[in-house]
Amino acid sequence: MKRVDKEEKYEKHEHDEHEEHHEHEKHYDKHEDKHEHHDKHCDKHKDKKCKCHDDKKLEESLKKIKELEEEVLKAKADNINYRKRKDEEVSRMLEFANEDIVKDILPSIDNFERAINLDDENLDDELSKFLAGFKMIYCHLVEVLEKYDVKAIDDKGKEFDPKLHQAVLTEKVEGMEPGMVVEVMQKGYMLKDKVIRPAMVKVSD
């Protein structure tokens, strides 16, 4: 009888231990589930935070790229404008490279004109030959100047233009309106479209 009681007592103890172990496992599993849920929540929050951070970083990168593109376009435009200005300056410089030389030649042209305008009827044959030679040289110089687009301003009878003429005298001329060129006292000259020396003129008053 005592042996049976002892066995029953032992079996009950075994059962209690088994139940206790089972409860412990349930508690542990519950704790693990809770911990896993917490980890998932943290991971989700972390992913959301990372995504926001990545979006902000991407936005900043795109903004920076746009700024760099604008700077490149501006630099390119500035370079094109600079090259265009330099090309125009060089072209203009080459176009009027002969201006100083022409200006130096003009007084000689004036002297030739004074010489050939002399009345050669009262000159002897020798001087007449010299005068004929002057006329040939003068004509050649005029041809050279015309070759380089140098043109004389000889506007007798035309309206006075301050861009082309320099008034040195005025004279009241009957039958002529005021402001007209009465006489060209010294020819002016243009190099292409630029006045390099205005004509000295007498203007009607």
Task: Write up what this structure looks like.
This protein has 3 helices and 6 strands; from the N terminus they run H-H-H-E-E-E-E-E-E. It is of the alpha+beta class. The chain has helices at 2-95, 99-116, 125-147; strands at 150-153, 165-171, 181-186, 188-191, 194-197, 199-204. Helix 2 (99-116) runs antiparallel to helix 3 (125-147). The protein is elongated and about 110 Å long. Mean pLDDT is 77; it is low at 1-8. It has 2 domains: 1-95; 96-204, Nucleotide Exchange Factor Grpe, Chain A, domain 2 (Roll). Helix content is 66%, strand content 15%. The strands form 2 sheets. The chain has a 3-stranded antiparallel β-sheet with strand order 1-4-5.
Brief summary:
With 205 residues, this protein is α+β, with helices and mostly antiparallel strands. Helices cover 66% and strands 15% of the residues. It has helices spanning 2-95, 99-116, 125-147; strands at residues 150-153, 165-171, 181-186, 188-191, 194-197, 199-204.
Question: Would you spell out the secondary-structure blueprint of this structure?
Answer:
Layout: H1 2-95, H2 99-116, H3 125-147, E1 150-153, E2 165-171, E3 181-186, E4 188-191, E5 194-197, E6 199-204
Parallel strand pairs: 2-6
Antiparallel strand pairs: 1-4, 3-6, 4-5
Helix pairs in contact: 2-3
